[in-house]
Automatic annotation (TrEMBL):
EC assignment: 7.6.2.9
Pfam families cross-referenced by the UniProt entry: ABC_tran, TOBE_2
Protein's recorded name: ABC-type quaternary amine transporter
Gene Ontology molecular functions: ABC-type quaternary ammonium compound transporting activity; ATP binding; ATP hydrolysis activity
ABC transporter domain residues: 4-234
Cellular component GO terms, alphabetical: ATP-binding cassette (ABC) transporter complex
The organism of origin for this protein: Thermogemmatispora tikiterensis
Amino acid sequence: MAFLELQELTKSFGKTRAVERISLGVERGEFLTLLGPSGCGKTTVLRLVAGFEQPDAGHILLDQEEITTRPANRRPMGMVFQSYALFPHMTAEQNVAFGLRLRRLPPALIRQRCEELLALVGLAERARSYPHQLSGGQQQRVALARALAVEPKVLLLDEPLSALDAAVRVTLREEIRRIQQQLGMTVIYVTHDQEEALAISGRIAVMARGRLEQLGTPEEIYRRPRTVFVAGFVGASTRLSARLERAVEGRCRLDGILLRVPPQPELSDGSAVLLVVRPELVTLCQLNEASGAAADGGGQRQGQENVLLGTVELRTFLGAVTRFRVRAAGGQLFTVDLPGLQAGTLVPGQRVRLSFPPEACLVLPLEETGSGVTALPVPEWPAGTTGQPGPEREPQPEHA
Ligand SMILES: Nc1ncnc2c1ncn2[C@@H]1O[C@H](COP(=O)(O)OP(=O)(O)OP(=O)(O)O)[C@@H](O)[C@H]1O
């Protein structure tokens, strides 16, 4: 049994089923993140663990003890909220000392503990500052120190960084991870930000509509999403609706083009599937406009698999990579990330050869209904980008 066990937790608010039969175990010293879109029930799970809400059904066990109905003030938990919730009339030190004073610890011990904790969160110099004299990031550090002061067995963090600006968010998330590892703290962290979840977590529990979609390490969630929802929610990807022709051999038909994918022995021939391809696993090669040959001379290379022709529609500089949106001849939209120099001079309107190895394709079965397969979500695209419409002359697909 795990250190903290959630068993079949269910909670409704009126007609809203906020949490539905959530079961998961958090190991001692683990950093587990609940990740999902707004309204999926993350905060409700956290509040059930903290004891601020009572489940309609299910059990919570901590260190093998049932705590499902134990009041919040008798659970050994610390909580940090999105809004820093510091006492405004108390200094940083007094805020951190609050819980220790309630426990009537000797003043010298309280002082020493506050000093240690403020040093741990990098605020040793600001012990006498009031919240209004501190930045948002510094206030959240105080809130973290205050939550840690009472030595909780589990630290619960509810979107603690979402009110902060991007640079502070990144610094503070690294700090939180460092402190968690230094103290060997058990943490449940709630966020809707998939990048943050991938960066900070030991394991991630992806939630949708009150249910647990997938539980795994960041690498597992990113590389091997098990559901269409997880594939679409975590990380950028190209998602293509296709049909398996020969499942055992890994052959798939995408709008008349035969693609090779990893063998799918557990699926049957003719199954509707979703192909998921991460943007960094696709390569682009500029085509020479006059001859239609690739700039590297390999446009029609014999035997190369999963090659499509297309046109660049958007180019977005993202720093370490440049992201392209490429419209393939069959109309499919691909998201492609090229590092630094490889992005070269590719601009919207240019014709390209697009390719990806079979191993880059993740194959997820799609549920078929009477009216067709599950509708595909539109691929996300960074906000604020601009692009030109593709050229009138569409390139022809290369047929396998
Ligand atoms: N006290 C409440 N009364 C009524 N409905 C509630 C209450 N708390 C949550 N809900 C509903 O339960 C569902 C799950 O809410 P919850 O806050 O757990 O989601 P969340 O994933 O944390 O979302 P967000 O990231 O927006 O906070 C939502 O539909 C929400 O409106």
